Amino acid sequence: MRAVGIVVEYNPMHNGHAYHVARSRDVTGADVVVAVMSGNFLQRGEPALVNKWARAEMALRQGVDVVLELPAVYATQNAELFAWGAMACLEALGGIDTVCFGSESGAIDWMLELAERLAEEPEGFRARLREALAQGMSFPKAFGQAVNTWRAAQGLPPLPVDQPNNILGLHYCLALRRMNSAIRPVTIRREKAGYHDAAPTDKRIASATAIRRLWLEAGRLDAVRPYVPETTYAILRREEEAARAPMHWERLYPLLLHQFAVLEADEIAAIVDVDEGLEHRLLRAVRTAPSFEAFLRAAKTKRYTWTRLQRALVHLLLRLTKDRFRALDVRAGVPYLRVLGFTARGREFLRRRKKHLAVPLVTRASQLDHPLFAFDLRAARVYALGYPPEVAAAEWNREFRQPPVQV
Amino acid sequence: MRAVGIVVEYNPMHNGHAYHVARSRDVTGADVVVAVMSGNFLQRGEPALVNKWARAEMALRQGVDVVLELPAVYATQNAELFAWGAMACLEALGGIDTVCFGSESGAIDWMLELAERLAEEPEGFRARLREALAQGMSFPKAFGQAVNTWRAAQGLPPLPVDQPNNILGLHYCLALRRMNSAIRPVTIRREKAGYHDAAPTDKRIASATAIRRLWLEAGRLDAVRPYVPETTYAILRREEEAARAPMHWERLYPLLLHQFAVLEADEIAAIVDVDEGLEHRLLRAVRTAPSFEAFLRAAKTKRYTWTRLQRALVHLLLRLTKDRFRALDVRAGVPYLRVLGFTARGREFLRRRKKHLAVPLVTRASQLDHPLFAFDLRAARVYALGYPPEVAAAEWNREFRQPPVQV
Q1: Is the distance from CB of A227 to CB of A213 less than 8 angstroms?
Q2: Hey, are the CB atoms on A261 and B288 less than 8 Å from each other?
Q3: Residues of B in Cβ contact (< 8 Å) with A325
Q4: Do A319 and B396 count as a contact with CB atoms less than 8 A apart?
Q5: Which top-rank group of organisms is this from (chains A, B) (predicted)?
Q6: Distance between alpha carbon A17 and the CA centroid of its chain, in Å?
Q7: Is residue A391 within 8 angstroms of chain B, CB to CB?
């Protein structure tokens, strides 16, 4: 069985994603599609609109065969560590021939070449990155600038490293290179809606951002219908009817306020991504902020982007401290693989892989007691506390009851 | 101006309380009644039904002239420390001639005599108390038994130290004795409804417990009306209409679940009143408990009474750690006096006292930055998070806007 790996968030899974799954299978000739998916909290430091079980089901109904959960500790990090965690999952599973991702560029050669150069951590690049970060630039911006000024100094032309999916793709290549992985990266050009496009740009295709906005701001799930597969729509409706969706930051804001009420500044500074005195800025901003959005607007600066702040706040909610993070040794490879769901073909693939695995394949939360996994459970529980109280009470221990989704 | 001190919770203020205020003034011939009142969390480890500002107003409308807030760190402790904190407030204010409290016994002589003996910390008593506690008895029960077996060993008759208001009264006497205070304790016999009576026992008098039950369980504030002054009733209605009442533990349960989701067992064990492995019991009990009540029922034992568990859980919500508690040095006397409200007469009394005070008289939260006071602010903020989200956002910083209530 030939297998292709993909890295997804599906917040929610829309027509563009379904197209990406089908194309990934086609261009790589794969029999099996294995997705590494973020759990309940996403790379931009947000809770997913619907929980990971529902999103895993969306994936399985649109051609994905296996959904593995990207451990929570990787899911809310910058492109570099996010990509590293995702590639480490595919590498740990093994049997994966290619990884296929969308990018604005659609060309893999420059990514592979740049990854090879960056893998050696050249000082010319490192120094420029440090400098750009010290100027208060956000990581993606600093990264793009450092790459191109470093190349210019060598007389090389600039590369399109300022586009989010190019950056992510480059980091997949870089992670695979660093792991000496045999997985071959493949990219397909992203068509239609840009990642950040806020409004639908086509009759059937809209970005996840646009879709979220339609649901959250207009409060109209039916407005979303043209842009998502019918299978996704049915799941979204079910989750909305069960009062589990749409989840958003405002629902978790009381938990955040509680942390700011009872933690000392130095305890907040101990949280991952709370750096350079950010704790004081947050404590000031939260004092009179009537909503999460107002809070973030008050705290935001050029240096502390919306995404960076949101990540720090997820880490605060999950109590991911710098000490704990260091002890987790996230560069050592993933110590388990959490299975969120599979199709019949996916099950067969997992059965074959099982005897070769060096890490446990976790299908029940009670099977594993590991400090990295503890954060996945935290993330699931904290997310559930954003539901209305009666739903929260019922869902809060779901991880220990929920078997993998089978489609 | 002759002044009498009283210690109250007013959860809520009912006809029996109003009678106590009037009697306290009469029997002591006082011109001014100064109440030390618990803030938003009470001695039984519960959030008050209505917030402290509303309760201060109830008091001022029924004959109390000054309401001081008992610092939160004392308010949710056993009788001994609760009483110590309350007496320390009256002693720090000064100008108080008597303290007047209700008791089942109604006689002060045995309390004064027993307090004098206990003040010396006799080993015969101490050893018996330790032993009773080691057997798993609750503090009030162990205390009563230790007193009477110790007295029996000396051929002395038993004393009624098994009734809650007698115990509290005795501890007021003991605290004053230890402070070498000149304040003279006076007790009046509690009439009618016992402290724990669940159902009304008279046409106009019902215990606060019975009143809370009528409101919370029957959901009928009007059913409460016969048992409270009209001034109280109007305030309760206003608070209910503003969605600030009735507050209860279930509303804070999500915050508690969050703590159990993200704290390690040893971090829970670091909280005041989480002793002897209680953290493991709590973590087990919370795993499948759909409500605060179910959680407490699952955690409760003979040793861990409902009250003791609730106190530990308040401390967890406020993040009152053993280290922090030790550093606060609560036996050193209160470092400030927080004024929640006053009448015209009360204001005149405070004006006269002001020049004699060794500690700040705080009428605005922004006036003081003190680690003990920080817990009062935490308590107010955490309590506000039990309101519906929009109300919570508006109320969460109220401490910094609210001036003393003036009646």
Answers
A1: no
A2: no
A3: none
A4: no
A5: Bacteria
A6: 15
A7: no
CATH number at residue A96: 3.40.50.620
CA A90 to chain centre: 15
Beta strands, E only, A219-372: 337-342, 361-362
Q: Are A353 and A108 in contact (CB under 8 A)?
A: no
**pLDDT tens, residue by residue, B171-185:** 999 999 999 999 999
Nearest to B286 by CA among B272, B266, B268: B268
Phi and psi angles of residue B351, each rounded to the nearest 5 degrees, phi first:
-60, -45
| Structural domain that includes position B229 | 3-105+186-247+330-406
DSSP line for A55-71: HHHHHHTTT--EEEEEP
Judged by CB atoms closer than 8 Å, whether chains meet at A389 and B287 is answered as no
Q: What is the mean pLDDT of residues A319-324?
A: 97
Report ipTM for this prediction. 0.93
Q: Which helix (H) or strand (E) holds B188?
A: strand B184-189
| Interatomic CA distance for residues B336 and A178, integer angstroms | 60
- DSSP track, A128-143: HHHHHHHTT--HHHHH
Alpha carbon distances (Å) from B196 to A74, B193, B213: 53, 8, 11
Q: Which residues on neighbouring strands pair with residue A187, listed in sequence order? A: A101
Tokens representing residue B82 in the block: 């609760």
CA atoms within 13 A on the CB side of B270: 12
In a domain, A270, yes or no: yes
Task: Kindly state whether A133 is in contact with chain B, defined as any CB-CB distance less than 8 angstroms.
Answer: no
Tally the C-alpha atoms within 13 A of residue B150's C-alpha that lie toward its C-beta: 23
pLDDT value at A37 more than 70: yes
- Give the DSSP H/E element, type plus range, for residue A148: helix A139-153
pLDDT at B200: 61
Pick from A378, A389, A396: CB nearest B262? A378
Å between A311 CA and nearest CA of chain B: 16
Q: In terms of domains, do A243 and A254 share one?
A: no
Query: How many domains does chain A contain in total?
Result: 2
Asked if residue A387 and residue A339 are part of one domain, the reply reads yes
Among the candidates B297, B328, B359, a domain finishes at B328
Domain boundary among A328, A349, A365: A328
